[in-house]
Structures are given as C-alpha cells and as structure tokens.
User: Fold this.
Amino acid sequence: MPRILKIAAAQLGPVHLTSTRQDTLSRMIKLLQSASMLDAQLVLFPETAFTTFFPRHLISDQKELDSFFEHAGSLPTSLNTRPLFDEAKRLGIDISVGFAERTADGKGYNTSIYYSASKREVIAKYRKVHLPGTKEPFENPDAVNQLEKRYFEPGNLGFKAFRTPGLIPGVQKKGSEKVEAGQGDPVMGMMICNDRRWVEAWRCYGLQGVEVVLCGYNTAGFAPDLWGARRPMTPEEAETDAVFHHKLVMQGNSYMNSCFSVSAAKAGLEDGKYDLIGGSCITSPEGHVLAEAKTKDDEVVFAEIDLEDCRQGKERTFDFDRHRRIDQYALITLQTGVVEPELL
Ligand code: CDT
Assistant:
C-alpha cells in the first residue's frame, strides 16, 4: 500500500552572534510557511537552529553561555521559541528542530525534538551521542574550534525510533486485524550532525525498521585543525570534500538501512568568518538524492516520498532477519578504539 509523505528540510543561511533571536525565529517561520505552500507535512530544521553555532567560541561567562540554551520542556512555550511551534500548530505541520538543551540540574545536551502538529505536543526527543572536536581550544589562534565536548554531555537517550501519528490516513494501528511490517504510521529516527558519520547510529535505527532519518547539522567547510589534512587544500577544495562526505554518508547509510533521510544545514559564512557547508538533501532508500539545496542561504528542500519504497531493501538485500550474522559482529560492542593485528 502506498504511504505518501511530503517532507522538507528548512536550510538556514548564516546565523551570526549578533543575530537577534527574533530575527532568526522570523526566518524559520518564513521557511515553515514556504514549506506549507508546497504542502509539506513535516519540516526539519538544523542543529542548534535558533542561534549561531556557538560551540566554535570559547565562552567563559556563564550568563552569556546560558543565553544559547533552552529548557526542553518549555520549548513550545518559551518566548524565544514558541512562535515557531504556534505556527506549526496553525499550519498543521510537524517539525523537528535542534537546540542546545539545559536540564534542571544544569547539564547541557545538543538535542533535537519532534513536534507533532496533530498531537499538539513534542512526541520524541534525541540527544546527540557523538560530540566531535575538543574540550580545550586549539593553540593555533586562527583554528576553527568545535568545543562541543566542553558544553555538552554525550547523549543518553540512545537511538530510539518512534512513530509519527496523523500524517498518513488509513495506516495499520495497534489491534488492526492483520498487522504487517511497513503498514503503520511512519517510523522515524533523529540524529544530529556528526552522528550521521557513524554506521552504528544508523544501524540502531535500521534495527527498529526506520523509514525516515532526520538529521540537522552545522558542518565547517574549511577547518584543517579539525578535519586534519594529508595534503594542503584550498578552502574551496576542502568545502567540496566536506559536502561530498556529507552526501556520501546520507546516501550510503540510507541505502544500507533501506530508509529515506532528510538533512538540514545551517549554511554560509557565520560572523563573516566561519564557513558552514550547505548541501541539505533528501535521499531515498536506494541511495539516490531526491532533492538538494542549490544555495547556502535560507532555502526549502522538498520531496514527496512513498514509504513503500523502503520495502525493496528491507525485504531483499537488507532483510536483516535473514541475512545478518550477529555471532560475527561481537567486536562492535566489545571494543571502542582500534586494536591492530600483531606486527609480523
Ligand atoms: N556539528 C557537528 O557535529 N559538526 C561536525 C564537524 C566535525 S569536525 C571533525 C560534523 O561531523 O559535521
């Protein structure tokens, strides 16, 4: 049975340290409205969407640092964020959005939530597991820093897939007479930026029959101290490579887990200095790019997809039940780092 879904990535152009929350929020609402004109049912916003990507800065003033964070419970009610949720409710569009989360006991997480317009509430929350970069800034004063390990704890909610209600009429529900895989409400999973480079994250979702993976990101285009460089690269070459790797992991992992994926960038030159790649895209379970951003500015990337397309991979090449050999994969959970074979 076809299960059609209209989905969009809301790519944001640069958000500067000097950008006001109100201005950024208005841009996000405008993107939501543009997606609504295309009839989108679900819109994904980037990682830390409401502010600049602040982990590149060393911020020692606690009050200043706190100004980048939100409490998850108050996201749909806080003055800083509420208008986006009100508009999603008014338009009847589900949204997934990334933000810096401060918990009641003062911990920080890099988080994204899924808001269901039909339920009028947040139905899922994910905290970024793979935090890249360093705790301390690089000695090189010109380096681009990525201080996520300083500001955030590693996510502790695992990779928990969830169903999104109210998007597709006539799907099978709990207690339906004949229950089959791939006939219910869409199965989705969230990851955040660096997570997309880790096959383990995708496989955890794949094992729950994920049909759409949502991933917001802020990826530096030119950051040799972070990426490392075996040979000197111009900023243009480095950015081309970064976009290539972004698409490679979205396409490859979508294929290997027979799912669609949506990725939404924060893109362009933040603070006139820090280049973030664009490349927001929607990929298919066969690994093809269905739609992609053409700019590094505010832009909606849209596709109409049929979740039934996930069945081909899930029932043949990647029928996990028939073909996986977990007795041979023990190393994956026994060992974190690399242990090479003994020298000859
Ligand atoms: N935001 C984020 O996770 N960015 C990282 C940069 C990695 S630097 C080695 C990314 O994987 O895109």
The longest helix spans residues 235-256.
